[in-house]
Design brief:
mainly alpha, 20 helices, 69% helix
Length: 488
């Protein structure tokens, strides 16, 4: 391969284009996210419904070994985030995943990644609305799930339309509640284990982690089958990349946010689950109920279960809030590259992509319908689809990083100020792990629906791409009608 060919392949000039060959324009966002907000968005992204709600079903399947599954997945997530961090400091842009896929893999992959990440958050928003409605049942069982889901959808929609500063402030306090609560849960759980107070004091013991049919009570195979659910819990850690275009000082805040990820995983996932499974034996947990709420009910601590339920409710709303934020930004990036209608590229007077957010929220309303039709299955359906979309996004980050490192070694691209340890080696390891997760999704009868949805989605992307290419060709030939134009 000649130097010119390599330069063309890697996009050494830093531009990225869609079918019409356009480049990303000045983004125009308000840099309204301060360091404390970016840090809390990063922390909050590691604590969501996948932990508070999904962990119950995973514990029932894997027993105490679920702690090892979260730890294993957490290591891979750190590899992904360090790969993303290197790319972000090479070129910090909002809509980063799609931009990097476009630059290093080609226009179609940028198009597919942007739309798939958008789909992931629309579907995740449905999951979070479902979970929030379930948590409301704890206090008001007479309120239908769909009613609660609709109210939360409308309120968060209003928050996202106002300004990025309001979004950042709401997300900061949502995350603060989650962080404070989990640390409090760990402290109380350790107190129960060491001092023996509460109703669970007589049975709480570290031996609960291995005494009931061992660490792998249902076999290693059953434990591995939980990985797709575990990976759903980590969706949103990459959200810090979407904030790059609106961070006040991305060169300082982004590396700090990424480097604290291992501690967040150790404390909030491994630490919290270890304490809970020591306080209450794993056989008492089940799908559809938060293990955190159940643990405090078991302890018999007055009002504790209600407080924990409030915390997990804020976790669901926090994730949905983040989803609305990211969908609008990703649609604007697609519009800027002539890969979505130009309406999605416009900012309102508060410099937020209001039209993209509005369309995304309207589609999240499908989750309200699912809560009306199949309330008992809504959460499982949407989480499996979201996980499949998330795996694609992470895969694109990793492969883009591998290609970027190849360009750096060839002397065609500048080195990032935040290089990933091990170069591209750990990115390859993470790619292999994600391939395993995809195989496990295909093997799981309940989760397999996500691959069917993915196949239909892939066909839709291919059809849409061919449509855009034909429009671009007509534009080049002098056709004056161009419905898909670059955003100004």
């Amino acid at each position: 391969m000649t130097s010119a060919q390599v330069d063309k392949e890697y996009g050494g000039d830093g531009t990225a284009g869609g079918p019409t060959g356009g480049s990303t324009p000045e983004e125009g966002y308000e840099r309204g996210l301060g360091s404390r907000q970016v840090q809390m968005i990063a922390i909050g992204g590691a604590i969501g419904v996948g932990l508070f709600m999904g962990a119950g079903a995973n514990i029932a399947k894997a027993g105490p070994s679920i702690i090892l599954m979260y730890a294993l997945a957490g290591v891979v997530i750190f590899f992904i985030m360090r790969a993303l961090g290197e790319l972000l400091l090479y070129r910090p842009v909002s809509g980063s995943f799609a931009e990097y896929a476009r630059e290093f893999l080609g226009p179609f992959f940028g198009f597919a990644t942007g739309w798939t990440y958008w789909l992931m958050w629309v579907v995740t928003g449905m999951a979070e609305l479902t979970a929030a409605a379930i948590y409301i049942h704890f206090w008001f069982p007479q309120i239908p799930q769909w009613v609660s889901a609709l109210v939360f959808l409308v309120v968060l929609f209003g928050v996202n339309l106002i300004s990025v500063k309001i979004f950042g402030e709401v997300e900061f306090w949502f995350s603060m509640i989650k962080v404070t609560a989990i640390i409090g849960m760990i402290v109380i759980g350790l107190g129960v284990l060491t001092l023996g107070f509460s109703d669970a004091g007589d049975t709480a013991t570290a031996s609960n982690l291995w005494a009931h049919d061992g660490i792998f009570p249902n076999g290693i195979g059953s434990s591995l089958m939980t990985l797709q659910g575990v990976m759903f819990a980590y969706l949103a850690v990459e959200l810090v990349g979407v904030t790059a275009g609106e961070s006040e000082n991305p060169e300082k805040t982004l590396p700090k946010a990424i480097n604290t990820l291992p501690w967040r995983i150790i404390v909030f996932y491994v630490g919290a689950l270890t304490v809970i499974l020591a306080v209450v034996k794993w056989t008492e947990f089940s799908a559809g109920a938060s293990p955190f709420v159940h643990a405090f009910e078991k302890m018999g601590i007055p009002l504790a279960a209600g407080i924990v339920n409030f915390v997990v409710l804020t976790a669901a709303l926090s994730s949905c809030n983040s989803g609305m934020y990211s969908t609008g930004r990703m649609l604007r990036d697609l519009a800027a590259n002539s890969e979505a209608p130009k309406l999605f590229g416009r900012l309102n007077s508060r410099r937020t992509p209001a039209f993209g957010i509005t369309v995304s929220v309207a589609l999240m309303g499908i989750g309200v319908v699912l809560n009306y039709i199949v309330p008992e299955k809504a959460f499982g359906y949407v989480t499996s689809v979201a996980t499949a979309a998330g795996v694609w996004t992470w895969m694109m980050i990793l492969i883009s990083h591998i290609r970027y490192r190849r360009g750096v070694r060839a002397g065609l691209l500048p080195a990032s100020s935040f290089p990933a340890p091990g170069g591209s080696v750990f990115s390859w390891v993470a790619v292999g792990f994600l391939a395993l997760v995809t195989c496990l999704i295909a093997y799981d009868e309940d989760a397999r629906v996500s691959l069917y949805v993915g196949a239909v989605w892939a066909v839709g992307l291919l059809v849409g791409w061919q449509f855009l290419k034909r429009r671009a060709q007509r534009a080049v030939a002098g056709d004056p009608t161009r419905e898909y134009a670059s955003a100004e």
